[in-house]
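Example (one chain per record):
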Amino acid sequence: EVQLVESGGGLVQPGGSLRLACAASGFTLESVGMHWLRQAPGKEIEWVSGIDAGNGRTQYNAPVKGRFTAYRDTPTNTLYLQMDSLKTEDSGVYYCVKGCRDQIINCPRGKGTNVTVSG
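Predicted structure:
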């Protein structure tokens, strides 16, 4: 059974950092592409980042490029999102998503972790 459990969210001031984690079980992270999505209050869900299966190549949406870094830890089967230089507009619920044949928004995801950037 595929399980994804996000953690690491919280309240942080603008300019601060957070590291989100996504503990995966039921599959190995290296075997499938993974994604981070986020949803701000009252807004549509937004793709944040992706990491390829195998080589682990990463992609980022423009608003976060240069500030966020996605990576995975093979021994613990955990996906991470390091978020630096946070802005108020980064606030929202962050989800990790296991890639599938459907649109990313329809793929298996965790329950999310809430990030609030406020000063």
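Caption: Strands lie at 3-7, 10-12, 18-25, 34-39, 46-51, 58-60, 68-73, 78-83, 92-98, 113-117.
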